[in-house]
Design goal:
The protein is mainly α and 99 residues long. It is built from 4 helices and no strands.
Length: 99
Amino acid sequence: MASTIQVRVDDELKKKSDLLFKDLGTDTTTAIRIFLTQAVANNGFPFEIKRNTDTHSPYAAMTEEEILMKLEKSRKHFEEGKYREADEVVSDMRSKYGL
């Protein structure tokens, strides 16, 4: 039997997380399942929780220069063969997390 969890989140956070997880080859529902699986496996949060002393918010918009730098880095990684196909990543995640 499966249970349903409903969570209310800000529209912008939902949109950004959906895009992020799609880019990572999965969806938000699967990402939440991974989080819950890892929380149970770790008997707590699967990452360190601390106050953010960095003034740069991960939700802040990037400048055009920052975007172009990230794109250039991505292109270099691609040219160097430093990438994985999304299907391979999803398959590995399913095997590792039992999804």
